[in-house]
Amino acid sequence: SQTIHQWPATLVQPVGSPLSLECTVEGTSNPNLYWYRQAAGRGLQLLFYSVGIGQISSEVPQNLSASRPQDRQFILSSKKLLLSDSGFYLCAWTKVSGGEKLFFGSGTQLSVL
Amino acid sequence: RKEVEQDPGPFNVPEGATVAFNCTYSNSASQSFFWYRQDCRKEPKLLMSVYSSGNEDGRFTAQLNRASQYISLLIRDSKLSDSATYLCVVSGAGSYQLTFGKGTKLSVIP
Predict the structure, then answer these.
(1) CB within 8 Å: B96 and A43
(2) Interchain CB distance below 8 Å, A99 and B101
(3) Which of A23, A74, B40, B71 is at a distance of 20 to 30 A from B63, taking alpha carbons?
(4) Among A60, A96, A101, A108, the residue to mutate for chain B (most B Cβ within 10 A)
(5) From A46, A104, A107, residue closest to B97, measured CB to CB
(6) For residue range B19-69, what is the model confidence (pLDDT) as tens digits?
């Protein structure tokens, strides 16, 4: 069976510090991978998605970036965090055909202070 | 018109009640539809897919109306454990992206 791992669960970072969130998927190959953000009281916002190694599509201009160094690894990064980067970050995957069911990791609650 | 719109909520219902949520979508070419459930500070989890002919899973019934571009979720005999936020999710034709509604919060009261 497929599983998705995301860490850390909680993170408190000062403004201006770097960020690295990691996500890995097991039990499947060549998944589509996604990073979403959910700000307090708001809906899920798609940040990045990837259909293959090294292929990243950005949905929202911001100071965040994503990388996919391996087939089942997806990383969200920032060189300098802003207060507005606070939120609940979720990694997710779907099968390669697209439009399929989306499965989420357990999320990272990021607080930028 | 927003891509996916849901009832604003919150819905506060007594145990045993029947409650219905609606969701409208703007992309007439959308092909896949889902309902997700999200508990506070947790990840969304797939509740059920929504099929053209309508589908049922226990106390939950989902309907799709392509002509009017809306989806519904009906929960019968509400349980305390049904308290959560319910998210409507729609995909585009040939798109890798799923669009989420903002969710409707349900509180089932003893």
Answers:
(1) no
(2) no
(3) B40
(4) A101
(5) A46
(6) 999 999 998 888 889 999 999 989 999 999 998 888 999 999 999 999 999
